[in-house]
UniProtKB/TrEMBL annotation:
Coiled-coil blocks: none
Species in which this protein is naturally found: Nonomuraea recticatena
Signal peptide bounds: none
Pfam families linked: SBP_bac_1
The UniProt record lists the keyword Signal: yes
Protein name: ABC transporter substrate-binding protein
Length: 427
C-alpha cells in the first residue's frame, strides 16, 4: 500500500524516525552519543542513568559516552557553544538552566519533535507522558522547547512521622496552625526549626513563600525586574517581611544556625536535634546516613497565609540538545528511551526522587509531596532572568532579615533603595 505524504505526514514520519533510526541499520545507527551529566559517579541518579545508557547501547547499537560533570555541567558546557567542536550531544540540567542560560545562546535545539514521538516501547507520546505543565516549564521565553524533563523536585516541611503522627493524617492547613505546633515544641525546650543559615537561597524561601501567598506568583516575580524599586514598598511585601521578622524573633531556630556551615544543620535535624526543616525533595537521600534508625520521612506543603496557599515551587531535571550536536537523532532517541516506565521507576526506588510520570509512585520519603504536587497548582508565573540581582541585592538583605539584624520595615526600605541603585548601574 503506497504511503500517503501530506503536510501533517512529515511530522509523523519524523517522530517515527526518532525511534526507528530511519536510514540506519536495524536496531541502531552504529554511531555514538556523548552525555554531559549533572551527576557525579556513585550518586543514586548516576546509577540510574548509567543503567539506562548501557541498555540503550545493547538495544540500539549506539554507544553512549557519559561524562559525569556534577552540578556545573551546564555552566561548563555553555562556552563550547561558541566553537565548532561542541563536546556533547546531550547536556543535563534543571529547567531554569536549560530554558534561560542554554536557550539564551540561541544554540539550543527545539525538542518539539521529541515530544511528538512515542516513549520507547509504549503507546503514549512523550508529550502525554511529560504533561503540559512540565512541558511549559521546559519551554524558553521565545517558545523553544529546550528541555526533556524526567525528574521533578519541590519543597516541603519535612518531619519525623514517628514524633508527630497527628501531622501525618492532619498536617497544618494555615500558618497559624503551624506556629501553634512550633510554640508547643518550644514549651518542651525544643528549637523546632532546622535551618542551614550559610545558604542564602535557603534563607530567602520563607520570604518568597509568604510573599507568593499574599501577592501571587506574578506579584512576587515582578519585584526584582522593577527598575524603580518601588515594588518592594508594597504592603504585601512588608507583611511578608514582618512574618519573617516574627520567625527571627520567635526563637524557633537553634542557636548559631546562621554561623554553621552547610550541611551541619540538616544533619542535626535528621539526628533529632530539631523538628521541622523546609527543604527540597532531595533532602531524604542527602541526610539518610545521619538520620536516626527508623526515621520516618514525612512532609507537608507550605501552609496557607491569610487564606491563600502558595503554589508549589517546582524544578525539573532533564536534558537539552545543542543545535551543533553531531548525533542529534540518536540523542533524541535516547530521550524517548530514558522516559520508559522501568527507568522512571528507578528514579523513585533508587534515586528516591519524583518522576514526571504520574503513573510512577514517588519514593516513600517524598510521597506526601508528590500527592500534593499531582493534585495542586505548581508555580505558574514565568520567572524573569534578572542576572545577579538576587546575589547582589535580595539575598544579603534576606539574610539580615532572617538573622534578626534588620526589621521588616528596614528590609523593604533598603530593598527599594538598593534595587533602584542596582538597575541604575545597569544603565
Amino acid at each position: 500500500m503506497p504511503m500517503m505524504i501530506s503536510r501533517g505526514g512529515t511530522a509523523i514520519i519524523a517522530a517515527v524516525c526518532l525511534l526507528t533510526a530511519c536510514g540506519g541499520q536495524p536496531g541502531g545507527t552504529g554511531k555514538e552519543i556523548t552525555i554531559w551529566s549533572m551527576w557525579s559517579e556513585g550518586e543514586p541518579n548516576q546509577k540510574v542513568l548509567a543503567e539506562a545508557a548501557k541498555d540503550f547501547e545493547k538495544e540500539t547499537g549506539v554507544r553512549v559516552r557519559t561524562q559525569w560533570k556534577g552540578r556545573t555541567a551546564v555552566k561548563t558546557f555553555l562556552p563550547s557553544l561558541n566553537t565548532d567542536n561542541v563536546p556533547a550531544d546531550l547536556v543535563e540540567g534543571n529547567n531554569r538552566e536549560l530554558t534561560r542560560q542554554f536557550a539564551a545562546t540561541k544554540a539550543a535545539a527545539d525538542l518539539s519533535d521529541v515530544y511528538g514521538a512515542k516513549v520507547h516501547g509504549e503507546q503514549a507520546t512523550v508529550a502525554d507522558t511529560v504533561g503540559e505543565a512540565y512541558r511549559r516549564m521546559a519551554t524558553s521565553a521565545d517558545g523553544v522547547v529546550t528541555q526533556l524533563p524526567y525528574q521533578v523536585s519541590t519543597y516541603g516541611w519535612f518531619f519525623d512521622g514517628r514524633t508527630f503522627p497527628e501531622l501525618v493524617t492532619a498536617p497544618p492547613k494555615t500558618w497559624e496552625d503551624f506556629t501553634a505546633v512550633l510554640r508547643g515544641q518550644q514549651a518542651k525546650g525544643r528549637s523546632p526549626l532546622g535551618q542551614d543559615g550559610s545558604i542564602p537561597n535557603y534563607n530567602v524561601r520563607y520570604l518568597e513563600h509568604f510573599a507568593r501567598a499574599l501577592m501571587g506568583d506574578e506579584g512576587w516575580h515582578a519585584l526584582a525586574p522593577d527598575r524603580t524599586g518601588r515594588g518592594w514598598l508594597n504592603p504585601e511585601v512588608l507583611k511578608a517581611a514582618t512574618m519573617v521578622e516574627s520567625l527571627a524573633k520567635g526563637g524557633y531556630f537553634p542557636a548559631g544556625f546562621n554561623a554553621t556551615k552547610f550541611p551541619a544543620m540538616q544533619q542535626k535535624w535528621a539526628g533529632g536535634e530539631s523538628d521541622f526543616l523546609y527543604q527540597g525533595t532531595y533532602l531524604p537521600k542527602e541526610v539518610a546516613p545521619y538520620a536516626d534508625p527508623g526515621f520516618e520521612f514525612r512532609a507537608f506543603r507550605f501552609p496557607s497565609v491569610e487564606g491563600r496557599t502558595p503554589t508549589m515551587n517546582v524544578t525539573t531535571t532533564g536534558f537539552g540538545i545543542p543545535k551543533k550536536a553531531r548525533n542529534a537523532a540518536d540523542a533524541k532517541r535516547f530521550l524517548a528511551f530514558f522516559l520508559q516506565k522501568k527507568y522512571q521507576e528507578k528514579v523513585s526506588s533508587v534515586a528516591l526522587e519524583m518522576s514526571v510520570r504520574k503513573d510512577v509512585p514517588a519514593a516513600a520519603q517524598v510521597a506526601d509531596l508528590k500527592r500534593a504536587l499531582d493534585s495542586g497548582e505548581i508555580n505558574k508565573a514565568d520567572v524573569v532572568d534578572v542576572g545577579d540581582f538576587n546575589a547582589k541585592v535580595l539575598l544579603p538583605l534576606s539574610d539580615e532579615l532572617l538573622f534578626g539584624k534588620i526589621t521588616a520595615a528596614g528590609f523593604t526600605r533598603k530593598m527599594a533603595e538598593n534595587a533602584a541603585a542596582y538597575w541604575k548601574s545597569k544603565g
